Amino acid sequence: MKKTISILLALCLVFTGAQTFGFADNPPQMPPDGMGNPPDGMPPAGMGQPPEGLTPPDGMPGGPGGMPGGHSSFSGEYKALVTISEDTELTESVYSEGTDEVGILVTDGDVAISDVTVFRNSDNSTGGDNSSFYGVGSAILATGGNVTISNATIETDSAGGAGIFSYGDGIITVSDSVITTQRGTSGGIHVAGGGTLYAENLAVTTNGASSAAIRSDRGSGTMVVNGGSYTSNGSGSPAVYVTADITVSDAVLTATGSEALCLEGLNSVHLINCTLTGDMPDQEQNDNTWTVILYQSMSGDADIGQGVFKMEGGKLVSLNGGLFYTTNTESAFTLRNVEIERGEDSEYFLRCTGNANQRGWGKTGSNGADCTFTAISQRMDGNIIWDSISNLDLSLTEGSILMGAVLDDESCAGEGGSGTCCITVDESSAWIVTGDSMLTKLICTGTLRDADGNTVSIMLGDGTVLVEGNSPFTVTVNQYTET
Description:
Layout: E1 3-5, E2 17-22, E3 75-84, E4 88-90, E5 94-96, E6 101-106, E7 110-114, E8 117-122, H1 129-134, E9 140-142, E10 146-150, E11 153-158, E12 164-167, E13 171-175, E14 178-181, E15 189-192, E16 195-200, E17 203-206, E18 214-216, E19 221-226, E20 229-232, E21 240-242, E22 245-249, E23 252-255, E24 261-264, E25 268-272, E26 275-278, E27 292-295, E28 306-312, E29 315-318, E30 324-327, E31 330-336, E32 339-341, E33 350-352, E34 370-376, E35 379-381, E36 384-386, E37 391-397, E38 401-404, E39 406-408, E40 420-425, E41 430-433, E42 437-438, E43 441-444, E44 447-450, E45 457-460, E46 465-467, E47 474-477, E48 479-481
Parallel strand pairs: 1-4, 3-6, 4-7, 5-8, 6-9, 7-10, 8-11, 9-12, 10-13, 11-14, 12-15, 13-16, 14-17, 15-18, 16-19, 17-20, 18-21, 19-22, 20-23, 21-24, 22-25, 23-26, 24-27, 25-28, 26-29, 27-30, 28-31, 29-32, 30-33, 31-34, 33-36, 34-37, 35-38, 36-39, 37-40, 38-41, 40-43, 41-44, 42-47, 43-48, ...
Antiparallel strand pairs: 2-3, 45-46
């Protein structure tokens, strides 16, 4: 029989409860084909389906977007103002002030939460790994059950105060709600440990450090987001932090003091008709500044493997720094018909190299990237940078245009290696060369010229001229084919 709960904290802490928990030894497997499908029966009609086929703030060890890494051995008890473990309807507001306390904890049952305010306010909460990995201190946390949230206002003003957090067997569907967080380690919507979360038409704002508006952490999970706005204002707080399987459609995603999106390790993100904006500050600890990064921090928060970034339609806005950066990982990018705005001082379009980052992303000289980058009906402006400890395979297809140079930058390559850079230009696409370029292999059945329409010279490293052009620019290769 369904139970109805009406709760006013001012009366008493009647529903206070605790639950023992620990990090899952075997996190749930990722869905097939990188992007995957949700569990049977989810999400409800109108929430959408995934398409087929946080480490610390800037300035701390590890990487952007989350909290410090390292293997977790934490186990303990959730302190919760309200604990629900059976079919329940909750229609009254909840005000939580306990240290590291969860406002509403759902462990089982079909739970409907609607037309409520959930507020977490605690000056003594600690945040940290327990909040990032398990949801300690969040406003609403599901570790089990099936939770539906609608027309809610969720606010947190405490360290580790995530708005909505799904962990383990928890499944959350949230719609038409407003989420605001103020402190550090306080993501807007968050999954970890295999949790599942579906979101539609949310207005999410985060203001603390390490507080991505759409956030995931150790143990991965699944997120499907449709519509709404997601804004992160804190340091090291990208709009989207990816250590899970995340799909976002028709949403506005904005980071005002950080890169726009971070993806770590063996995880994936697919953006469809979204506007994604980043404004990362230049910092001495970084060897460059970026807008979208696929990397491996070695913190233990993400399995080692290929990260997948897909963006189709919509708009990418870079207010500072380069656009796409990949280092110390395997990565695959696909762009299809995305409008791109880059800052006046943009350092590059794509950088595929090792790094000398002070946060320890692998060992300099052996921390290159293996990257495939596929452009489909895509305009790209800016240089491509690679090094000899990395492998880059860039394909221009279906009318794509690259306007830039391809540069070998060995500044983070140590003693060097046998890395390669292959550029493929199909018959419908064009590379407009803006400077002398160096790569290992060029396959071009399309257009190769400079901005004035002049033919670009192509020669081997020993000076042998393969194509005599009238452009001031030369492309140097080890191998060239027109077929």
